[in-house]
Amino acid sequence: MPTQDQNLWGASDAYERYMGRWSRRIAPLFTDWLNLAPGARWIDVGCGTGVLASTILDRCEPAEVVGVDSSETFLNSARAALPRQHTSFIQGDAQAIPQPDDSFDAAVSGLVLNFVPDKEAAVREMARVAKRGGTVGLYVWDYAGNMQVMRTFFDVATSLDPQASDYDDGVKAPICRPGPLKQLFQRVGLGDVEVRAIDIPAAFPHFNDYWLPFLGGTGSAPKYCSSLDDTARDRLRHELQQRLPTGPEGEILLAIRAWAVNSRVR
């Protein structure tokens, strides 16, 4: 998962608690939408811990899945979690994918694009390694809108500390909106570009199930939490607990939205 800050990602267990569990529920909806025939060759760019690759193996009957990521820690987690048959995981950069031209029926990516410094280069590389007529698709969180797990966090954080916006992907990642995503894919020369919302609910049985993943240090919001002293962190925790919609048993229900793109190589 190449990023502008190479220290942003690295702890696979922390990532799983923070975002991986939600990505696992988005990924099947995404692959179902792509609707590739069995026997396809897939490449998962910025594969992380293997969330999307695992879904492809479970639901799409692929001939092969190749995962590419810059983090050896994430790659080791993916290798340990997924079967060796039909899969391989290699270290590499999304902006210079270490695979030959016209190699895959589908080049896909989950929750990575906004962390890549040169987004156009990444999508162009995905198109390069996909065959003519092949699929290029990805999904990103709706950071500025209905990804409420993070939107609520940063709305509260910036109300207490305006510098929290320096970590807010809703501000820092304008690409994660339908218009800019579609324009990027069209600019690269991809055809039949479609963008759609994928929505799921996020249920937390109690506040700590929501809060504790923000203390893991992996991701933008956890990095912000790590930058605070104990007093400021406790104040943020208190304000979040007051602001979040809470049921009679302490349960919290939020909405999660990802923006997904599907396109064809001309």
UniProtKB/TrEMBL annotation:
One MF term in the entry's GO annotations: S-adenosylmethionine-dependent methyltransferase activity
One GO BP annotation of this record: methylation
Keyword Transferase in record: yes
Alphabetical list of Pfam families matching this protein: Methyltransf_11
Keyword Methyltransferase: yes
CDD domains for this protein: AdoMet_MTases
PANTHER family found in the cross-reference section: 2-METHOXY-6-POLYPRENYL-1,4-BENZOQUINOL METHYLASE, MITOCHONDRIAL, METHYLTRANSFERASE
Name of the protein in question: Methyltransferase domain-containing protein
Species name: Neoaquamicrobium microcysteis
Lineage: Bacteria, Pseudomonadati, Pseudomonadota, Alphaproteobacteria, Hyphomicrobiales
